[in-house]
Amino acid sequence: MKPAAFDYVRPDSVDEALEVLAASGDEARVLAGGQSLTAMLNMRLANPSVLIDIARIQDLKNISLVDGMIEVGAAVTQAALLAWPDLVKHQPLLAQILPNVGHYQTRQRGTVCGSLAHAEPSAELPLALATLQGEVVVQGKRGRRVLSAADFQTGMMTTDVAADEMITACRFPVADAQSRSLFHEVSQRHGDFALVALAAVSTAQGVRLGVGGVAEIPRIVDLPLLQGEAVEATLNDLAWELDGVDDPHASARYRRELVRRIGKKIINEVSHATS
Known about the structure:
Elements lengths: L6 E3 L4 H11 L3 E4 L5 H6 L7 E4 L9 E4 L2 E5 L4 H6 L3 H4 L1 H6 L6 H6 L2 H7 L5 H8 L3 E6 L2 E6 H4 E3 L2 E2 L5 E9 L7 E6 L9 E7 L3 E7 L6 E6 L4 H13 L10 H23 L1
Parallel strand pairs: 1-3, 2-3
Antiparallel strand pairs: 4-5, 5-10, 6-7, 6-10, 8-9, 11-12, 12-13, 13-14
């Protein structure tokens, strides 16, 4: 299929993009890398009258350290963040997650913020943002807002970004030098969306566990340091609390079992590395 007709606008600045957004109401969509939106346009799942391409706005192509956070501009590709020389040092969990996002080719075009905006339940980057308690910066003519990860994604493929706003950056906290993290996902093929994805990071109180691919939004739980049967009991309770879904790829029962087994493995590994 081909997309419905739309006006294509390629602004040179954030202010210019916001002017178009404000004038277009809810008829506009913002395009960065296009790895998700282009397919939706072709299938006519999205039918904007105006498409705003922000890919060449230089102010949105920066990766920087700001107040203990890694700030990633809205036009930064997944490949660019993965190639950032300081990524492993400052946020090792992201360094583990990014190679699992799509394929080599899609990471050259797909943006970090674009994946967050798409808010696919099985995508890895929304899970990373939620597990690390990151932030998303959104801007409109009415001003600028900083949304916590908990407030940003409101449901399956829905966020708190208003129709006249656009994401300008996302932020991930710099990892503590003593912190340890692990990521593991199960998918039918490498690069596919995860059937289940789990991320764990050590905290002062224990371990924060993030679960993706099971519910509409990532599920985050903070756990004390546990061992043995206590880990199994906690994960069993968590698995049954998740609103697992049956789909052609996997049953809810199978996904719950993956949460139990993989969760136990990564919690034990993070806990042992921390102790």
